Amino acid sequence: MKKFDLPTDVKKYITNRRIKTFICFLITEIIFFVITYLIIGRLAKWDMNNFIFTLCVIDAIPLFIYQIPNMIFDRSYKGEIIKISYKEENSDSGMRSSIFKRYRTNLLVKTKQDKLYNIKLESLNTTGGPNGQIYKEGDTVVHIAGTDFPKIVKRHDMEFTTCVVCGSKNNVGEEKCDYCNHSLSIK
Ligand SMILES: [Zn+2]
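^ thats the input. predicted complex w/ zinc ion below
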């Protein structure tokens, strides 16, 4: 699979984020360990089979919560958005929510190798509902492993591009994101 050439500041952002995730993972794993072995295991007087089961099943849960396997492999890819779906987020009612409705967006991306990926977007640019969407069906995007927002690299009317770190719209040709100041060029 093709690897992308990332600017240093974006690389640094991804590394810092991974370190934070890994620390959270370790803390969760320690909590799981204490609860399962030191508390439940002792109280229930577990035998060897119970311990092995717990180790392989229960204590493996944080690995998937924090998607640790994804950190080991570079799962960056390029593909075309073939379907976009929206889901209104439950907000805390009241008048405000009728103006600022938040939408969870799902992008279905198909690569040249016919692999399908689902990308969930949960923040910032999902406000505004279907009409306020940055992404459109037919856009070609690259998804950089470790970031949330796929970058639009090709569309029919290419007047802006997106930031992989914060998802903001930026004019084509800009070097840094207007909002978070991360580099925009990805080759
Ligand atoms: Zn940005």
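The CA atoms of residues 63 and 69 lie 7 Å apart.
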